[in-house]
Amino acid sequence: MTSTVPNAVQHTDAAAPPITMFGPDFPYAYDDFLAHPAGLGQIPATEHGQEVAVIGGGLSGIIAAYELMKMGLKPVVYEADRIGGRLRTVGFDGCDPSLTAEMGAMRFPPSSTALQHYIDLVGLETRAFPNPLSPATPSTVVDLKGESHYAETIDDLPQVYRDVASAWNACLEEGADFSDMNRALRERDVPRIREIWSQLVERLDNQTFYGFLCESEAFKSFRHREIFGQVGFGTGGWDTDFPNSILEILRVVYTEADDHHRGIVGGSQQLPLRLWDREPQKIVHWPLGTSLASLHGGEPRGAVTRLTRTAGNRITVTDATGDIRTFRAAVFTGQSWLLLSKIDCDDALFPIDHWTAMERTHYMESSKLFVPVDRPFWLDKDELTGRDTMSMTLTDRMTRGTYLLDDGPDKPAVICLSYTWCDDSLKWLPLSPKERMEVMLKSLGEIYPNVDIRSHIIGNPVTVSWENEPYFMGAFKANLPGHYRYQRRLFTHFMQDKLPADKRGLFLAGDDISWTAGWAEGAVQTALNAVWGVMHQFGGATDPTNPGPGDVYDEIAPVELPED
């Protein structure tokens, strides 16, 4: 896929091994683990039927519950809102039910190989997502400082954009050994990955994304940095990420997480919903025909309001109905700030350093607004110019990113009028959906003065501001400079043998626990870590031919930086 500002290496060799998002911090092949015929492990028969709390019914929680059920345990899923978490697909009142909007995750890279395992497992289809200048996007308009440029490929843009692309490529090569690391990840060369990454973590943990650009001779021009921030690479502008740690950005570009995106046909929320209903053919203890839904009578339990340590190092869970249950093991998959605010927690649940790491977690804000339209009118050709009437749009105006989503020329379609992050998202927060839509239509009207978008709208807008969602309080984690040590504590928490006995049994999972927050792959990987941890807690083990993430931990553990 051609990006607005492409990554440093464009791989066109069909014989090249595919890359995976296991990332440089913990280069474990989760996709191989999932594909192995021996399965993920087993627990002693004496433990079959034991209950395990799974708090949070997003993708991470549902995958953890599904795999624990297959091992013969009884997951008890708690969900405060709806199954799916930030895989949230909604419809439009009064419109064809096939018209949907992705309020959370909407595009997934092929490098999300563990995620793809589950997409394939439940029989979902994917198709190319219309990112800026991708082959799935008929045209893109870049509108900066009141000047618009129409492009079908990057070569259609003015030279300055190609200069910015070259600057980004040079910056990555000179400052972060991009090609070498990308090659090592592609070849799964763990020693080389660790060698490169350990040096970069030590050197760059205190550096912001913007500071990294400024240190590069290639980006000495402020104009180039400004354009790069507003137009970016892959999915659009990245200036809202400028204050974040450059390590976060390197994880994205090394693993091609921002390239070749696919959308899930019919909506991403189908994935956790289908796993909830799925009856696995290989299952221990439970009879064939068992599903998570059947174990729960069709619905998960409600919101968790209290978590405590009780005698015997148990985890005691109180839900919104007042029901109290006690478990030998629990998996927490909600965003970690919930443990500091919405849920009454014992300090004894975690070591103090882990509480500190959760408290310091930095979440990004994010907002979207979608409208349904009668047809993909943007494909009409302008009689004077021969161009598309409207295009996927990147701009420095309030809308920032506008995406055009259709299912064929004669069917109703959807426009994501605006997708924004951080400060840009906060600008929308006080406005109602209709107020947001009016501002967005005004901005787009300045870019497309001859296009009457409003005349095509057939239903009310739907919107989300994740920072205002009570069970999320933000869209996804993004580490600030100096936060590597905090992230390491959270990610490695599933390895509990060295913790005191009264700090074991509660496992963290979810994409904000992963190294690749904001990507569903991170939710999958940390769910599998937690599954290994629970299995180990109950005295189980993996097959020797298919070691799990905890079995090989000492060989590939994340770099540990000194505390003093």
Structure description:
With 564 residues, the protein is an alpha/beta fold. 29% of the residues lie in helices and 16% in strands. Helix 2 packs parallel to helix 10, helix 2 (59-70) runs parallel beside helix 16 and helix 12 (352-360) crosses helix 15 (484-491).
Q: What is the first-to-last residue Cα distance? A: 44 Å
Tally of helical runs: 17
Round the mean pLDDT to the nearest integer and report it.
94
Unreliable stretches (pLDDT < 50, length at least 5) are 1-14
Considering DSSP H and I runs of 4 or more, what fraction of the residues is helical? Answer: 25-40%
Radius of gyration: 24 Å
Q: Structural class of the helix and strand makeup?
A: alpha/beta
Backbone shape? globular
What is the topological layout?
Blueprint: H1 30-35, E1 51-55, H2 59-70, E2 74-78, E3 89-91, E4 100-102, H3 113-121, E5 126-128, E6 140-144, E7 147-151, H4 159-176, H5 178-187, H6 190-204, H7 209-214, H8 222-231, H9 246-254, E8 262-264, H10 270-277, H11 292-295, E9 304-310, E10 314-319, E11 324-327, E12 330-332, E13 344-345, H12 352-360, E14 363-364, E15 366-373, E16 392-395, E17 401-405, E18 413-421, H13 422-426, H14 433-447, E19 462-465, E20 476-477, H15 484-491, E21 506-508, H16 520-537, H17 553-556
Helix pairs in contact: 2-10, 2-16, 4-8, 5-6, 12-15
